[in-house]
Amino acid sequence: METKKLNFDTKLIHAGHYEEHFGSATVPIYQTSTFAFKNAEHGARCFSDNKEGYIYTRINNPTIKALEDNLAELENGYGGIATSSGMGACTSIYMALLDKDSHFLSTSSVYGPSRSVIENHFSRFGVRSTFIDTSDLELVKKSIRPDTRVLFIETPSNPTIQLTDIRECAKIAHDNGSILVVDNTFSSPCLQNPLDMGADVVFHSLTKFINGHADVVGGIIITKKKELYEKIRPLMISMGCNMDPHQAYLVLRGVKTLGIRMERSQKNAMEIAEWLEKHPKVEWIKYPGLKSYKQQNLFKKQMKGPGAMMSFELKGGIEAGKKLMNSVKVATLAVSLGGVETLIQHPASMTHSGLSRQKREKAGITDGLVRYSVGIEDAGDLIKDLEQAFEKI
Ligand SMILES: *Cc1c(COP(=O)(O)O)cnc(C)c1O
Predict the structure, then answer these.
(1) How far is CA 143 from the centre of its chain?
(2) Of the residues 30, 54, 94, 111, which is catalytic?
(3) Calpha distance 161→308 (Å, rounded)
(4) What structural domains does the chain harbor?
(5) Nearest-atom index, ligand 1, CA of 337
(6) Rounded CA gap, 276 and 290, in Å?
(7) CA distance 310 to 161
(8) Is 45 a catalytic residue?
(9) Which residues touch 367 (CB under 8 Å, ≥6 apart)?
(10) Catalytic residue among 11, 58, 261, 286
(11) For every one of its 393 residues, what pLDDT tens digit does the chain have, with 9 covering 90 and above?
(12) Residue 51 Cα, ligand 1 centroid: separation in angstroms?
């Protein structure tokens, strides 16, 4: 079925399901490592043109291809490259696009490992980096250099829920001859489409909203144009960052409900954020759906909804935060996000503990900051859960 003209929610279900699989209603798991050629000539043709047939599962596989095509269409890209994890996607992009002595410019509060792999490892190969508050466009303009190969942004950023203007960053990057990469994990293609706003590459940790059921780790890279796709894909294959067919099957199943999951999570998040904002024990809360959210204009300009992620700081700092996390019962104390279940975590001691305190503070990650990922449970139960935990502080 031709799906390009269909609307987003229909694409979630049908895009990418182009190949015939004996009439099966869903794409089956092709649990095979290799594929037989019809004859020597066919084998040679498969190596010279990937449309001729599959070769080997690290290179591609029908289940994985269905997922790649589905997500590439949801992001309006040229093609998708599925990876073993979100970090597999991230490091494949780095390896393909960064050269010795090139410069990398990024958001300071970017996902912890996305930053530490550049600072601690790519630095060994001569890659230089600067991490700044990319929500400040003047600072982006000042910090981009002739040798800046990649401008890499995460918006909303993690866990500070700070937005960066994608359209403006695309202009700044392109005027400088640089590539704009956007980590779109927090929004999913449901709420934000960076390639439509000028980004060259978008990637997701599929582990989060897109799969949405806390049972798979996976990643995907989607490029706007063929040129970057052909640069990144062979490298990902050679490094072996490929996805597994079973993983692909589960994500294909998860993505179908992305629209309705996001709708429900956002509705819950809005109710909870309004409740938290009024709570006397809450110092501040950051959630794009609230009127008090500072970047209202940018939020409306580039996002279709406020999402299901929020950060808040309790009065009483780190000790109060710990007490809250040890007292909640419905929310699970765990890292990760974007699942059907509500998760709570403490970035300073967990996801961002790899950064020094000074770097954390510079990135806006205070010691008392709590990150809350809202699931699709009943909002009343989630509020009651927080209420009983707050009473213990
Ligand atoms: C989780 C996450 C990643 C890394 O993804 P994995 O699937 O855990 O490897 C990258 N960026 C963001 C914003 C994330 O939340």
Answers:
(1) 24
(2) 111
(3) 11
(4) 8-30+61-255 (3.40.640.10), 258-390 (3.90.1150.10)
(5) 15
(6) 11
(7) 7
(8) no
(9) 317, 318, 321, 348, 357
(10) 58
(11) 788 899 999 999 999 988 889 999 999 999 999 999 999 999 999 999 888 999 999 999 999 999 999 999 999 999 999 999 999 999 999 999 999 999 999 999 899 899 999 999 999 999 999 999 999 999 999 999 999 999 999 999 988 899 999 999 999 999 999 999 999 999 999 999 999 999 999 999 999 999 999 999 999 999 999 999 999 999 999 999 999 999 999 999 999 999 999 999 999 999 999 999 999 999 999 999 999 999 999 999 999 999 999 999 988 888 888 899 999 999 999 999 999 999 999 888 888 887 788 888 887 888 889 999 999 999 999 999 999 999 998
(12) 31
| C-alpha 47 to ligand 1 mean position (Å) | 33
Q: Of residues 11, 149, 208, 360, which has the active-site annotation?
A: 208
Letter string b/e over residues 121-139, b meaning 16 or more CB atoms within 10 A of that residue's CB: ebeeeebbbebbbbbeeee
Whose C-alpha lies nearest to ligand 1, atom 15?
185
Determine whether 372 is an active site residue: no
For ligand 1, atom 8, which residue shows the shortest CA distance?
86
Q: Please report, as a single letter, which amino acid is at residue 14.
A: H
Give the pTM.
Answer: 0.96
CB of 306 within 8 A of CB of 288?
Answer: yes
Separation of CA 40 and ligand 1 centre (Å): 42
Residue 185 Cα to ligand 1 midpoint, Å, equals: 7
